[in-house]
Amino acid sequence: MLDAKLLVYGLIGLVVLYVIIRLLKWPIKLLLNGIFGVVLLYIVNTIGAGFGFHIAINIITALIAGIFGIPGVAALILFQIFL
What InterPro entries would the database entry show (predicted)? Predict the structure, then answer.
């Protein structure tokens, strides 16, 4: 009887762990996107300074780079080129 309880508790623990991992997966992805976006925005400004290219870092560009990450920075670069 004790083994059956341990098995049930183990299965419940695995389900709870799975749910926690699924809930935390999205914020971690958003955090990594933000980090990569901001670092890439800094790199683009550092390298672009030699070519006369600059993306202003303000609340809008920081939010775009932070939320969308690398594709957001690519969109900012394209927007700056064609503006």
Answer: BofA
Is the pTM for the entire model greater than 0.70? no
pLDDT at 6: 66
What the block records as the tokens of 70 is 């690398």
CA 76 from centre of chain: 17
Cα distance between the two ends of the chain: 72
Element of type H or E holding 16? helix 2-48
Those residues with Cβ within 8 angstroms of residue 40's Cβ, 6 or more apart along the chain or in another chain:
65, 69, 70, 73
Cα–Cα distance, 72 to 50 (Å, whole number): 22
